[in-house]
């Protein structure tokens, strides 16, 4: 997520009342969690296991809970609670604003697009030409929808990410500063839900089609021309290549990559990366032929 206005490292240290290590004139233009940081971004780390990953990332400014050697070209701000400071910066840029209008005044909608009764269009959402938003669908803030897109009845596009910080008192939600992009010719069946990115975009590629009740987690990137049958669930930060087919009730774990033109058969559970161009089945999902041979062998053992 990019800030509306850039800051210097010194300005942010003063704002957060933290101890600055490194240059005070470093330009800071955005904020991202560690999976999506770019040069010019702020990120945070509060556990020693991940210090190395954060310090070697593309982030220019790191909120951290203990003093560390400052990498060249970066700055650190030392704070007792880096997560709360990080979350406060996101909330300042994206305050939670309950909807009071069916279509927010800042939304931009193509003149040939149809909005059915009961649909909600959020702040700074954009919808292209010749699209259809069906009854009772919710298009969340900052969502970007292309041309000729169909969003089925009851869909929720751009809801908060299911993303929490575990503390001794329970789970604290991250404020989601990202958004959702539905590219041209996407079609979503009834009651699909797509979470916006924690700090970047959840993307559904050109021409991809979802059946009813498909759930896509935060920061996923679903390639062009995929087909997902009913009740498919994809956990956060997972990438699925082009022309993939996922049949009913397939479940995909978080932080995985599925190669292009893979087919995953119904009720399979994917817990690791899969190569493209193959058919998979089972839990954990494996090449379908291998899975079928194993099932046949077990059946033969039972019959003996």
The poorly predicted ranges are none
The largest sheet has its strands arranged as 8-11-14-19-22-25-28-31-33-34
Total strand segments:
34
Q: Report the C-alpha radius of gyration, rounded.
A: 22 Å
Report how far the terminal alpha carbons are from each other.
61 Å
Measured as a percent range, the helix fraction is 10-25%
Taking the sheet with the most strands, its summary is:
10 strands, mixed
Pairing-aware structural class of the strands and helices?
Answer: alpha/beta
Approximate strand percentage: 25-35%
Q: What's the rounded overall pLDDT mean?
A: 95
Could you characterize the architecture of this molecule?
The structure is a single chain. This protein is α/β, with parallel strands linked by helices and 304 residues long. It has helices at residues 9-16, 51-55, 82-93, 288-303; strands at 2-8, 19-21, 27-31, 41-45, 61-64, 75-78, 108-109, 114-115, 120-121, 126-127, 132-133, 138-139, 144-145, 150-151, 156-159, 164-167, 170-173, 179-182, 187-188, 193-195, 201-204, 209-210, 215-216, 221-222, 227-228, 233-234, 239-240, 245-246, 251-252, 257-258, 263-264, 269-270, 279-281, 286-287. Helix 2 links the parallel strand 4 and strand 5 (61-64). The longest helix is centred in the last third of the chain and has 16 residues, at 288-303. The model has no long low-confidence stretch (mean pLDDT 95).
Summary tags:
alpha/beta
Topology:
Layout: E1 2-8, H1 9-16, E2 19-21, E3 27-31, E4 41-45, H2 51-55, E5 61-64, E6 75-78, H3 82-93, E7 108-109, E8 114-115, E9 120-121, E10 126-127, E11 132-133, E12 138-139, E13 144-145, E14 150-151, E15 156-159, E16 164-167, E17 170-173, E18 179-182, E19 187-188, E20 193-195, E21 201-204, E22 209-210, E23 215-216, E24 221-222, E25 227-228, E26 233-234, E27 239-240, E28 245-246, E29 251-252, E30 257-258, E31 263-264, E32 269-270, E33 279-281, E34 286-287, H4 288-303
Parallel strand pairs: 3-4, 4-5, 5-6, 7-10, 8-11, 9-12, 10-13, 11-14, 12-15, 13-18, 14-19, 15-20, 18-21, 19-22, 20-23, 21-24, 22-25, 23-26, 24-27, 25-28, 26-29, 27-30, 28-31, 29-32, 31-33
Antiparallel strand pairs: 1-3, 2-6, 16-17, 33-34
């Amino acid at each position: 997520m990019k800030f509306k206005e850039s800051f210097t490292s010194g300005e942010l240290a003063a704002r957060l009342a933290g101890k600055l290590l490194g240059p005070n004139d470093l330009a800071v233009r955005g904020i991202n969690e560690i999976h999506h940081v770019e040069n010019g971004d702020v990120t945070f780390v509060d556990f020693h296991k991940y210090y190395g990953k954060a310090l070697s990332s593309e982030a220019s400014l790191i909120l951290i809970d203990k003093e560390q050697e400052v990498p060249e070209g970066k700055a650190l701000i030392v704070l007792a609670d880096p997560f709360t400071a990080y979350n406060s910066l996101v909330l300042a840029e994206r305050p939670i604003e309950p909807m009071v209008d069916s279509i927010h005044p800042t939304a931009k909608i193509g003149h040939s697009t149809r909005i059915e009764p009961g649909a909600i269009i959020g702040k700074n959402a954009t919808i292209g030409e010749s699209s259809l938003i069906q009854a009772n669908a919710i298009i969340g803030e900052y969502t970007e929808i292309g041309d000729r897109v169909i969003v089925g009845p009851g869909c929720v596009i751009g809801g908060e990410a299911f993303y929490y910080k575990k503390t001794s008192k329970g789970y604290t939600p991250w404020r989601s500063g990202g958004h959702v992009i539905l590219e041209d010719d996407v079609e979503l069946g009834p009651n699909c839900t797509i979470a916006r990115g924690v700090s970047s975009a959840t993307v559904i590629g050109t021409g991809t089609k979802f059946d009813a009740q498909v759930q896509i987690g935060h920061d996923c990137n679903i390639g062009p021309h995929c087909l997902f049958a009913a009740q498919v669930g994809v956990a956060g930060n997972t990438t699925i290549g082009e022309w993939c087919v996922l049949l009913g009730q397939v479940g995909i774990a978080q932080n995985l990559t599925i190669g292009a033109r893979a087919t995953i058969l119904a009720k399979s559970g994917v817990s690791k990366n899969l190569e493209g161009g193959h058919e998979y089945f089972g839990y954990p999902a494996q090449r379908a032929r291998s899975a079928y041979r194993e099932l046949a062998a077990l059946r033969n053992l039972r019959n003996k």
